[in-house]
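Practice problem: predict the structure.
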Amino acid sequence: MLVDTDHSRRLSIEKNLGQLGYYRVIPVSSLHELMALMDNAIGVFDLLVINEDVVCVAGIRLENILRDYSCIRHSLIYKSVELHVFPGTYGMFPSSRFFASGVPDQPVLAQVMSRLEESAGSEVYNPLSATT
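Answer:
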């Protein structure tokens, strides 16, 4: 799941994920849309990529959202100095919080997805490695 108010940034991140082989991306433009999707989620989202400003504008802490919604396993929050990984403790799945500088580009997204695949074995769906 991808949340950013800027349409061009959403497209850029979605394109970079697609070039890495991840095609099941749900881009939304607001916290309201994100929460509506999570309220009606049937499955689990492996990764939430979110601009920190989206959460700050709403005045809600992301930790509170992730604690209330166990349908998100991991998160990548962008707008800090460099990529950092923090283990999460919320929900029913072990999770990680990633923080990236600026809009995550393809190398940052590749690094995040690689870490998720390593920690989860093959739980994170990668269509390039799927056999048919």
